[in-house]
Amino acid sequence: MTAKLKQVMLLWLEGFLEACSLHRVVILCHKSRKLLLRTGQCFLLNGLIFLGSLGVFKWFVNPALEWILPDPCAPVTSQDFCSYNGSYAFLRGGLLQLFYVFWFYPMYMLSFILSNIWYNDVAKYGFEAMEKSELRSAETFRQCDVPASVNMTNAERPSSGFGGVMIDIGEQVYSILLLTFFFMEVYVVGVIPYIGKILNFLLLSWMYAYYCYEYKWNFLEIPLVKRLEFFESNWAFFAGFGSPGVLAIFFLSPLVSGALMAILFPLGQDLTNLSLPQEELGNVQVY
């Protein structure tokens, strides 16, 4: 039991350290100008524009509205002015909602759509950069970096034709259902007293890590079943790998955490091209 716990802790720490090795992302971006461009676009849209807008709203727009349309009645304020207090509060609240409806929510949707398009390019260019790297040839990357238990099964499914298309569609539908169920699971465990937040953090860490690696597995054409088998047998590593990203957003508001996650996710994608667990644990049914 002690040896097993030690192995779990070591694998978790290995994943955590891999996710924190951001200097390796700089090296990878240096090898691919296209990767640098796409990663920079994610930073520009989600960091400068989206987060910048939230910052301007919080530190300038909202205080200005509170000054122009004050909420409480000051002791020195005349009774006539104070009678407008309810109207000011209503007007200020309406203006705040307009900011959200016509700026923040559309910006969030735009960020979500563009980021998901760019994530595929980030994974593609990062994968190509690793294959062309002098540190690792393409043959070594495919045969050594991916465990044999996963890679050896690529030939089991048809890669073209109607059968291959149907399998791809089925896997995409299953992935959507998987994600939907997982979000429900995260929400349910979050309301459990005392341990709910801990379980919530753990599940979000697994989800973040899994979807960081999924882009790489797509390019390697690894079947969904084998991805889940590998994930469940290395659950401690993936829990550690997802922890830094989730920790950065866990205590923030939904809009801020969404923008920050959109910045961190491509970095996690790049790191997946440089890391995989070296040991396996017993399967844990995460999904």
From TrEMBL:
UniProt keyword annotations, A-Z: Membrane, Transmembrane, Transmembrane helix
Record field: transmembrane: 43-61, 98-119, 173-192, 235-265
Annotated membrane topology: Multi-pass membrane protein
Compartments, as annotated in UniProt: Membrane
Gene Ontology CC entries for this record: membrane
InterPro entries with a match to the protein in the record: CysZ/EI24
Record-given protein name: Protein EI24 homolog
Species name: Brassica campestris
